[in-house]
From TrEMBL, chain A:
Transmembrane segments: 73-94, 106-125, 184-206, 226-248
InterPro entries: MetI-like, MetI-like_sf
Protein name (record): Nitrate ABC transporter permease
Family indicated by similarity: Belongs to the binding-protein-dependent transport system permease family.
Lineage top rank: taxon: Bacteria
GO cellular component: plasma membrane
Annotated GO biological process: transmembrane transport
Domain ABC transmembrane type-1: 65-249
PROSITE patterns: ABC_TM1
Organism: Streptosporangium minutum
UniProtKB/TrEMBL annotation, chain B:
Keyword annotations of the record: ATP-binding, Nucleotide-binding, Transport
All residue ranges annotated as the ABC transporter domain in the record: 2-235
Entry annotated with the keyword ATP-binding: yes
Molecular function GO labels: ATP binding; ATP hydrolysis activity
InterPro entries: AAA+_ATPase (IPR003593), ABC_transporter-like_ATP-bd (IPR003439), ABC_transporter-like_CS (IPR017871), ABC_transporter_ATP-bind (IPR050166), P-loop_NTPase (IPR027417)
Origin species: Streptosporangium minutum
Record keyword DNA damage present: no
Pfam families per record: ABC_tran (PF00005)
Protein name, entry field: ABC transporter
Signal peptide start and end residues: none
Length: 263, 261
């Protein structure tokens, strides 16, 4: 009950904004800015008028949303795994760092959308190319943060590991990785929001399904409520992903928050 | 068991070089509890880190049980000065204690039992499932002592282990140290800057000079009976030894008619 009240307290601005928006757009009568109720009706039409046995989801909803979310998560997980592994290796091995750091700095300076033509030529249009664009565009925050976290492991922790003769595996998985975890999570969070952006961009240019494709489709047929509806779906998706991520972070890093508060 | 010969260490080089250890010769017999006292910043931690193989001294040798220390030796445990950075905050207390036991060939159950037993020894039964940051400073230092005990080292090094706890906890931990050395036949080297503590806990007190640290005194402590925080500290021999060590630490010459041998 208390939680519901608190959530309501946090979200009070949403209905206020919606009402104001509705009134302003109705008064303005500009076709480019349809009122929220029109957008909602269009969204309902677009996603929720399917048959009952499929939970009323339309063909478009069942095709586009899972396709997009799947690519986004696949790209994010892949970037996470590679970024953490490479970042930690670079953080712990100064030689590797000296060798790879200039390359990393160069590669991350390239704006990821610029890579689209290159990746399109390399992989042809389709999920493989999109996942590659996402991975390449979002790996840097994870990689750099993991490297920094691994480099800055408390010397006393490492001394303790040495004195008590911990094995390489124990040192890596029980000391270095957990020490770097707060930084890694900060990187993963940035990457997640970047992943959403790159997912849409890659679908706008090279895709035959997905939310971005649907956005393009609506725009091409001058269906402005449809464009707005897709944007709203993207916003909701971003919000849900971020909330889920924060919940996971709270669980994994509970020691970190608590340890910080007491010292 | 431990022989240190002509140990020197210089940090850095050139004009900014700092000579921390200026030729230390020290032998510790098996089962002994040696306290090393010295003024702040004289090089006590440097000495301990070279014994533990955490630092490669620029000169001299440390020999432990017949073999020179090059990497961290087996059978050696350290209780570090700064307890808050020595325990791993992402692990429960019991996991912290049992983590090093895997290499001893114990299975999971044995490790857990050994950890709980060590925690009981230091008076922390029931704290195993907690996290280090849920404990007070004194309790955290007990956990790091328990971790060292569970490891059953032949040589235990303690670097100002009670430096940052309150006076009462400090006395408790001193007595705990005296108690556990009776249980396992450990050799202990305890570093401190507290003169009273060195005389109360040690079988022997080694006094270091200001940097570059050298040994200026080596006194045997012969106090009667089991030590007690009140009666031992008012014993005339204790009072005398304390004054003697105090003089040495302050760089005065030792009095000829002393309890030292
Ligand atoms: N990594 C290092 N690089 C350069 N100088 C160092 C380093 N570590 C210690 N020193 C210097 O060596 C001297 C001895 O340091 P050490 O930590 O051994 O002293 P200590 O006796 O343990 O001091 P305290 O009582 O404060 O713990 C100090 O003057 C310190 O500044
Ligand atoms: Mg020190």
């Amino acid at each position: 009950m208390n939680r519901v009240l608190r959530a309501a307290g946090r979200l009070w601005a949403v209905p206020v904004v919606l009402v104001v928006w509705e009134l302003v757009t109705r008064a303005a009568e500009d076709l480019s800015f349809p009122p929220p109720t029109t957008i909602a009706a269009s969204m309902y039409e677009m996603w929720l008028t399917g048959p009952a046995e499929r939970l009323w989801l339309t063909e478009a909803a069942l095709e586009n949303i899972p396709a997009s979310v799947g690519r986004l998560l696949a790209g994010w997980l892949l970037a996470g795994v590679i970024g953490i592994a490479l970042g930690i290796a670079m953080g712990r091995l100064p030689l590797l760092f000296r060798f790879l750091d200039p390359l990393v700095q160069f590669a991350r300076a390239i704006p990821p959308p610029m890579l689209l033509p290159f990746f399109m030529a390399l992989f042809a249009i389709g999920p493989r190319m999109q996942i590659n664009v996402i991975v390449f565009g979002i790996i840097w925050p994870v990689l750099i943060n993991a490297g920094e976290g691994a480099r800055l492991v408390d010397r006393q922790h490492l001394d303790t590991a040495r004195v008590f003769g911990l094995s390489r595996g124990q040192r890596l998985f029980q000391i270095i990785l957990p020490s770097a975890m707060p930084k890694i999570f900060a990187g993963l969070r940035v990457s997640l929001s970047l992943a959403l952006i790159l997912m849409v961009i890659s679908e706008l240019v090279g895709s035959t399904d997905g939310i971005g494709f649907q956005l393009l489709d609506a725009q091409r047929s001058y269906d402005l409520p449809g464009v707005w509806g897709t944007i709203v779906v993207l916003g909701v998706l971003g919000y849900v992903l971020n909330s889920a991520f924060l919940a996971a972070e709270r669980r994994v890093l509970s020691w970190h928050r608590a340890a910080k508060q007491t010292t | 068991m431990l022989e240190i010969s002509n140990l020197t260490h210089t940090y850095g080089s050139g004009p900014s070089a700092h000579n921390a250890l200026g030729g230390i010769d020290l032998t510790v017999a098996e089962g002994e509890l040696v306290c090393i006292v010295g003024p702040s910043g004289c090089g006590k931690s440097t000495l301990l880190r070279s014994i533990a193989g955490l630092l490669r001294p620029t000169g001299g040798q440390v020999v432990l049980n017949g073999s020179p220390v090059e990497q961290t030796p087996d059978n050696l445990a350290v209780v570090f000065q700064d307890y808050s950075r020595s325990l791993f905050p992402w692990m429960s207390v019991a996991d912290n204690v049992s983590l090093p036991l895997r290499r001893k060939g114990m299975d999971k159950k044995q490790r857990k039992e050994a950890a709980l037993e060590a925690l009981e020894q230091v008076g922390l039964e029931g704290a195993g499932a907690k996290y280090p940051w849920q404990l007070s400073g004194g309790m955290q230092q007990r956990v790091s002592i328990a971790r060292a005990l569970a490891y059953r080292p032949a040589l235990l090094l303690m670097d100002e282990p009670f430096g940052s706890v309150d006076a009462q906890t400090r006395e408790e931990l001193e007595d705990l140290t005296l108690r556990v050395r009776g249980h396992h036949n450990m050799t202990i080297v305890l570093i401190t800057h507290d003169i009273d503590e060195s005389v109360y806990v040690g079988d022997r007190v080694v006094v270091l000079s200001k940097a570059p640290a050298g040994i200026v005194g080596d006194l045997r402590v012969d106090l009667p009976g089991p030590r007690d925080q009140i009666t031992t500290r008012e014993h005339p021999d204790f009072v005398h030894l304390r004054a003697e060590v105090g003089r040495l630490v302050r760089g005065m010459r030792s009095q000829p008619a002393s309890a030292s041998q």
